[in-house]
């Protein structure tokens, strides 16, 4: 599959990364070990000792270093071997790849491309557990399906009407109406007003409201979404422009979702959700996360079934519908940037070979 490599991929939740406990994860088919030193610094290396290829994730943390517990080679945070028991000479090639890693918004982010191009400013601006305005909870699911299919699902909410009729209680509006979609430099923005509605069946309003939602879907596959309810007529009064969050009357919440490709046919789906503390509490959060958990299971069942059909069907072109504009824009962006990365790598190889 085609994925952008010069991007920050979510490797896990910060609170799940225990100090001095190496953690193994595969991203884009590459085995990675991540660990937090006693000082709190987080590091990421290729999960393979240079000696006999034992996984470093079975190793032992020693300060900012990681020792392979097969034959004892000690690696620094940059991937260089700094100690070989019983041997003074350390070969120059005794090193593994080090990955740029950042902890931000309660997520651990790993840069999978050119380390020299790693720019923390490109980390999607999510809301983390350190944000005092939101009461969040989180989790993740592993999919037996390629990440691209999950991205497609998140870029086309018309499926809510059908896949999530029993969980979110979504009505016909999501399939019957089109959102406003705006291309971004590293993603797309999807905005939608549902006018004069009573809300979903699991959280009905007693009076008609206008429901607003907006999300940015950013590289490599991160959804950041705010939604809220407003008095009926707000959408028309604003000429369907974005409202001010502080003018919401109910339902102001935030959700973040991130899709990390593990291998060609597996992915990990991270999610968080929570209300603004002016519009909810931990009890509401837990109730809604229970409903969301059912919805995420509905998505998983559908997408994994979709993957099984794809795997047993001769290659065919997808027949797009009017709801596929966001999917198409994001797919084209991924292909454009991935092709540019491939060209840059080829030019770098050619330049090195010519010297």
TrEMBL record:
Start and end residues of each Rieske domain: 8-110
Keyword entries, A-Z: 2Fe-2S, Dioxygenase, Iron, Iron-sulfur, Metal-binding, Oxidoreductase, Plasmid
Keyword GTP-binding: no
GO MF annotation terms: dioxygenase activity
UniProt keyword Iron-sulfur, yes or no: yes
Gene3D superfamilies on file: Naphthalene 1,2-dioxygenase Alpha Subunit, Chain A, domain 1, Rieske [2Fe-2S] iron-sulphur domain
CDD domains named in the record: RHO_alpha_C_DMO-like
Pfam families documented for this protein: Rieske, VanA_C
UniProt-listed SUPFAM superfamilies: Bet v1-like, ISP domain
PANTHER family, sorted: 3-KETOSTEROID-9-ALPHA-MONOOXYGENASE, OXYGENASE COMPONENT (PTHR21266:SF60), IRON-SULFUR DOMAIN CONTAINING PROTEIN (PTHR21266)
Protein name: Aromatic ring-hydroxylating dioxygenase subunit alpha
Organism: Novosphingobium humi
